[in-house]
Design brief:
Elements lengths: L3 E2 H7 L3 E2 L6 E2 L1 E2 L9 E4 L16 E5 L9 E4 L2 H13 L13 E2 L4 E2 L4 E2 L4 E2 L4 E2 L4 E2 L4 E2 L4 E2 L4 E2 L4 E2 L4 E2 L4 E2 L4 E4 L4 E4 L2 E4 L5 E4 L4 E2 L4 E3 L5 E4 L4 E2 L4 E2 L4 E2 L4 E2 L4 E2 L4 E2 L4 E2 L4 E2 L4 E2 L4 E2 L4 E2 L8 E3 L4 E2 H17 L7
Parallel strand pairs: 4-5, 5-6, 6-7, 8-11, 9-12, 10-13, 11-14, 12-15, 13-16, 14-17, 15-18, 16-19, 17-20, 18-23, 19-24, 20-25, 23-26, 24-27, 25-28, 26-29, 27-30, 28-31, 29-32, 30-33, 31-34, 32-35, 33-36, 34-37, 36-38
Antiparallel strand pairs: 1-3, 2-7, 21-22, 38-39
Length: 331
């Protein structure tokens, strides 16, 4: 990687730096691993002790960090500053260039400027890829789907027919968008498939982690709002509506027709039953089972999920009860 003048990075992150002029950095690394040629950062106080021993050439730290180390670049948010620096200067992942002769592209597909399609990918009839879309190898995009400007689709992704994907999205390997929702009508002791004829609509700036699935609607649309970030192995069922700027962590499952508001945060291995209304700004702790509607701004946890304070009181009562009976449940 090319060396970047430290003064340029300081200006880019609107930082304050009192160290020597003319220094450069050629990469980024954690505090424990960085050497004199690399930039590091401190955002979690848990790692503050490593400031004394790190060999990093420069360190992004918060404005409130004590000490006069000449390597410090003081910023309001070191974590965001480091992410911005990496994206601008050090993200050099190899990307497909141009259209591979081994790709299969239907004559009725529409490709914008600077589109890249890797080998063995299939672009079906009526697909539209906007300017700057990057499709890696072994991707299947079915008929009538639309992908917005600057979106990147990694290998082994399957995008079913008529799916709509916004601008600047990142779709990681193994994602399936638009598979049939899980819908059956039981009659005469048998389960009869309900045709799933809706679509999936994904907003702008959405990221979808590896192995996640987003089912098409039975009727209408399954929707993922702008700016939402979905971790690996998340399952989103038919007709679910996820709001803007939500965070869904690994192994979250959302049953059909449940609606999440804007800014919802769901920790790992949590699940939602169907047809729920989850308000704006709700936070759900790990391994929770949400079985009822949740109002705006609530924080819930447990199985079934209850407000944080109620859960804490219940746990405290159980521990006191156990001690009265002569045993400590924490042991």
């Amino acid at each position: 990687m090319p060396a970047v003048p430290l003064s340029e990075i300081v200006t880019f992150v609107s930082g304050r730096y009192d160290g020597p002029d003319g220094r450069t950095v050629g990469g980024v690394a954690p505090l424990a691993d960085a050497d004199e040629s690399q930039l590091s950062f401190l955002s979690n106080p848990k790692y503050a002790a490593q400031l004394a021993s790190t060999r990093a050439g420069a360190i992004l730290v918060g404005n409130d960090v004590e000490g006069g180390d000449k390597r410090f670049i003081r910023v309001a948010n070191p974590y965001f500053a480091m992410a911005s620096v990496v994206a601008k200067y050090f993200d050099r992942r190899p990307m497909p260039q141009g259209i591979s002769p081994l790709a299969s592209i239907a004559p009725t597909a529409t490709l914008g400027a600077n589109v890249a399609v890797g080998p063995f990918s299939t672009i079906a009839d009526g697909v539209t890829l906007a300017d700057g879309v990057v499709i890696f190898q072994n991707v299947s995009i079915e008929a009538g789907s639309t992908i917005g400007e600057g979106t990147v689709v990694y290998p082994q992704v399957s995008i079913y027919d008529r799916s709509i994907i916004g601008k600047r999205c990142i779709i990681h390997s193994g994602v399936v968008i638009g598979a049939d929702g899980y819908g059956f009508a039981t009659e005469g002791g048998r389960h009869h498939k309900i045709p799933q004829i809706g679509i999936v609509r994904i907003g702008d700036d959405v990221e979808i982690g590896a192995g996640s699935t987003i089912d098409r609607a039975a009727l209408g649309e399954t929707v993922i709002g702008d700016g939402t970030k979905i971790d690996d192995l998340v399952m989103i069922a038919h007709n679910v509506k996820v709001g803007r700027h939500c965070l869904l962590v690994a192994q979250v499952g959302i049953a059909g027709s449940t609606e999440l508001g804007d800014g919802v945060v769901v920790a790992g291995q949590s699940g939602f039953s169907g047809h729920l209304k989850i308000g704006n700004g709700v936070q759900v702790a790990a391994k929770s089972a949400v079985l009822d509607d949740v109002p705006d701004g609530a924080k819930v946890m447990g199985i079934p999920a209850v407000p944080f304070r109620e859960f804490a009181r219940r746990e405290a009562m159980l521990r006191r009860l156990a001690k009265k009976k002569g045993r400590d449940v924490s042991s």
